[in-house]
Design goal:
Elements (H helix, E strand, L loop, with lengths): L6 H26 L5 H34 L9 E3 L1 H21 L5 H23 L3 H7 L2 H26 L1 H16 L10 H15 L21 H8 L8 H24 L6 H17 L6 E3 L3 H7 L4 H15 L3 H7 L6 H17 L6 H26 L12 H7 L5 H8 L2 H16 L3 H16 L6 E4 L2 E4 L5 H20 L7
Antiparallel strand pairs: 1-2, 3-4
Helix pairs in contact: 1-13, 2-11, 2-13, 3-4, 3-6, 3-10, 4-9, 4-10, 4-11, 5-10, 6-7, 6-15, 6-16, 6-19, 7-8, 7-15, 10-11, 16-18, 16-19, 19-20, 20-21
């Protein structure tokens, strides 16, 4: 197989565009939400991103060439690889933002660095889960109902990805709706623009032109100039963060997200095999984990993953060269600081329709890729993530109204104030803590009930009781500007899950089958 073919150009533009949108999001969220200074973002985070993308893309290109040599075929396509979109949002809003707010409440003079360190811990832990799970991925996939995995992912996609960008779309309707129209036409309508231009590229180009024409861009002063930002080991910062017990509070995000990435990557390998390219499971998943660990060791707080879409890139004629080009391109722009120019020219608004599409696809998959009779379980699994997003919106609204300060701190009195409008905010705050666990447990238990496997449903409920008793779900404490994770037993919820489990265990004796609905 040749190093580079014509189809690699199309494949490169498609894969690079996916990763470009992710890095634009990193630039916008790290700078705007987390307050990372330029030196931290461009000197530490993006060089780490470059290392992770280079490691994975070069390996998967080499793997494709090796498969081609072994089989004597020239149509082998490398596995697509890049920044994990869902983990990006989860780590920003569920790990790093709470860490920043906690640091501010504690009087830390550098809360952005505290947030970055929390992200490093979450990323390296996620990578270790992916690496270790590479050898048991199939067992994990079989033990957990697909509805439980996909519903939890779908809830994050709806709340923390789609709805936020839907607000942004309608806040800036000319850019938002025009680019959304392009994405709907090409990705859902399955049509192509004349000349074979990729729909994502057209959407970003149209969005960029409209953003500049309407004054949305540029959003900041022009970059002062490029430089060279070599990767720097972040081992000292990692060790400092691990030495503090605070990181344990994020296990309820780290563990499920690591498992999601693992199982999702496994499904993408299966998708590639269905398209004719059979890659070994363990090394493919292990290198995915190695790429994430490498990201954290060199300063990136964003995991990588195998992307969905291998059959699409293969149909375009992409082989191994598109993966190599992707790794080299992002290494160049991230290490030289030239990405600052790209971010200045191309505002995140130009790519928000693509992110919205990603959220829609992930959410739709929860229903389309699960048995039809499990649809109620998917809906149940959506509730905790949507509740967590709603709790975050409520707290953002309170902060915008001037609360969450030393003079007007958050307190239990808020619960009574919300109850005055029949808003049970205490339940939302409880669901917010460890919502990924509770979404999986509730969805999995619902699947078992739908299948009338009541003993299995009871085991899932007892798992909820155990996690609550360990302080990994539902318990929270008040800080001046937030409701923070509290690693103490959440006994009321542990008792509730235990009661549910006992009910399921007794179901075979206290109920009889009925076909009515």
């Amino acid at each position: 197989m040749r190093w580079f073919v014509r189809g690699d150009v199309d494949g490169f533009f498609g894969l690079a565009l996916d990763n470009l949108v992710q890095i634009l999001l990193i630039e916008a969220l790290c700078g705007g939400v987390l307050g990372f200074p330029h030196a931290l973002l461009y000197g530490r985070v993006l060089p780490g991103v470059a290392v992770s993308l280079l490691v994975g893309n070069l390996y998967y290109a080499w793997q494709a060439r090796r498969l081609a040599a072994r089989t004597g075929r020239a149509d082998v396509c490398a596995l697509p690889y890049g920044i994990n979109t869902v983990s990006l949002f989860a780590f920003v809003f569920l790990v790093m933002l709470p860490a920043k707010l906690a640091a501010q409440a504690a009087g830390d003079p550098d809360p952005a660095r505290a947030a970055w360190r929390a992200g490093l811990v979450a990323t390296v832990a996620s990578g270790l889960i992916e690496f270790g799970g590479a050898f048991v991925a199939e067992r994990i996939r079989k033990a957990t109902p697909r509805a439980a995995l996909l519903a939890t992912l779908s809830g994050i996609a709806l709340g923390f990805i789609s709805l936020g960008f839907l607000f942004r779309t309608f806040a800036r309707p000319l850019v938002g709706l025009a680019t959304l129209g392009v994405i709907l036409l090409t990705y859902f309508g399955r049509v192509k623009f004349r000349g074979g231009l990729p729909g994502g590229l057209v959407a970003v180009a149209v969005g960029t032109v409209l953003a500049w024409a309407t004054g949305i861009a540029p959003g900041a002063a022009a970059p002062s100039g490029a430089g060279f930002y070599p990767p720097v080991l972040a081992a000292g910062d990692l060790l400092s963060a691990l030495a503090r017990p605070d990181w344990l509070a994020y296990l309820s995000v780290i563990l499920p997200m690591g498992l999601f990435t693992l199982v999702g990557s496994l499904q993408n390998i299966e998708s590639a095999e269905a398209a004719g390219d059979s890659y070994p499971t363990a090394p493919s998943l292990a290198v995915n984990g190695i790429g994430t660990v490498a990201a954290a060791l060199f300063g990136s707080c964003f995991p990588t993953t195998l992307y969905i879409g291998h059959p699409g890139w293969k149909a375009l004629g992409a082989r191994a060269g598109y993966s190599t080009l992707n790794g080299l391109f992002f290494t160049a722009v991230c290490l030289t600081g030239t990405f600052s120019y790209i971010a200045w020219v191309v505002p995140v608004d130009a790519g928000m329709a693509i992110v919205l599409w990603i959220g829609v696809v992930i959410s739709a998959q929860a229903f389309s890729a699960t048995p039809r009779e499990h649809a109620p379980a998917v809906v149940v699994g959506l509730f905790p993530a949507l509740a967590a997003w709603g709790a975050m919106m409520a707290k953002n609204g309170l902060r915008a109204a001037g609360m969450g300060t030393a003079d007007r701190p958050f307190s239990p009195d808020l619960v009574k104030s919300f109850q005055g409008s029949d808003t049970w905010i205490h339940g939302a705050f409880a669901l917010e803590q460890g919502f990924i666990f509770s979404a999986m447990i509730l969805a999995a238990a619902t699947v078992a009930v739908l299948e009338r496997r009541f003993a299995r449903a009871a085991l899932w409920a007892f798992a909820g009781a155990l996690l609550s008793a360990l302080g990994l779900m539902h318990g929270y404490r008040w800080t001046p500007g937030d409701t923070a994770f509290d690693l103490v037993p959440a006994w009321p919820w542990a008792a509730g899950y235990a009661a549910m489990g006992l009910l399921f265990l007794a179901a075979r004796w206290i109920t009889s089958e009925s076909e009515t609905h």
